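Researcher: Next entry in the queue.
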Amino acid sequence: MKRESLDRRSFLGTLGGTALVGPALVSPVLAATEKKNEAKPTRIAFIGVGSRGTGLLKQILRIDGVEVPAICDINTAHLNTALGIVKERRGNTPAGFSKGPYDYRRMLERNDYDAILLGTPPNWHTVMATDAMKAGKHVASEVPGAYTIDECWNLVRTKEKTGKHYMLLENYIFPRDNMMAGNMIRQGLFGDLYYAECSYAHDCRSIRFTKDGKLTWRGEVKKTSYGNTYPTHAIGPVAKWLGINRGDRFVSLVSQMSRPGAALRDYTARRFGPDSPAAKVNYIAGDMCLTTLTTAKGCLITVHYDTDSPRPASGFHMVQGTRGCYNSRQGVYLDGKSPTHRWEPMSKYREKYDDPAWKQFGKLAQTSGHGGGDYLTLLEFVNSLREDREPMVDVYDSAAWSCIVELSKQSIDGGGVPVEVPDFTNGKWETRTT
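Model: Structure for this entry, 434 residues:
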């Protein structure tokens, strides 16, 4: 297999040898410094190998030098499938753990791996991540990283106390056009940034239920919570573009939502019957939640969250500056370069501004999910371990983005009142660099 690595010096060379720092200048390094004959493998254990976890397992095994010594899942069918995948790809059968929901703690006692990857439902992310860091393991967590403000602070304080690396596996940062937009921002093409829009609009109704009409964990979330309960896919890219936690930070938030469960109730009545238990569930989450964030430097961000409307996936990301705009729905406009009042396709600027990571790894990435984001997200985590550095999406990002879950609910409870966003960096955002 071809080695999927990139020397740090050669990578920086593609950026003109410039060390990029400050707000909005965030570039994923994605550069491994491994030597060709390096003997030590990168050893990562998995907790949670359902459909999502299994997909991540398959992708991470595409990266040369990654080994999976142990896997935990309370569903033995899922566990056995995952064990078989590793056996097929690597020739070894990992140790399996499935004796109840806390058997992962027994797995954490092992010393034959360095990091864990969490593919479990979100309500387990914080407790498993903090347990792992306390056990001396680095962590990669699926999204969101937490549901409550207390959980966000717990992640931050545990990471700071243990010194372990933590990465939120936010893959919407890594698709080609989003990374290219970031590269154009670093080159100053859009000028001074002051506004962004983003959304996660994706019809998830079918995966809120089992085939017989019982609620999955995704369905339980709509029944027991409301507000923006899945914010990171939308906010992640624009937060990186605006330099959040690295030169700027969120300071306040306002949220509102539509009436609870209208689209979901209609769907369940048609799918399972109007008298079915599924159709009688009392959902408290609105079908649409709209959130507005302000930053310390006066930027404004709107976030759309809608996962139950009957329409194809239609998420978008947009960033506006004094010299131009990137809009994933329409293209790019550069003041003084683009035809007046006309959008241009990103492909026109691809050759000059394509992100170096896509130039290097594009053929490998494009075969993975989420527009290539899955592969590049995992590659970034693996390389952060190999270089013993903080990953691109760190614990402060996880907390700042995940806290939107609880804060959006607080704002809705108050009738759309502004609520303060905690500074999880404790002031370090003003001097933190890429």
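Model: The first strand starts at residue 42 and ends at 47.
Researcher: Noted, moving on.
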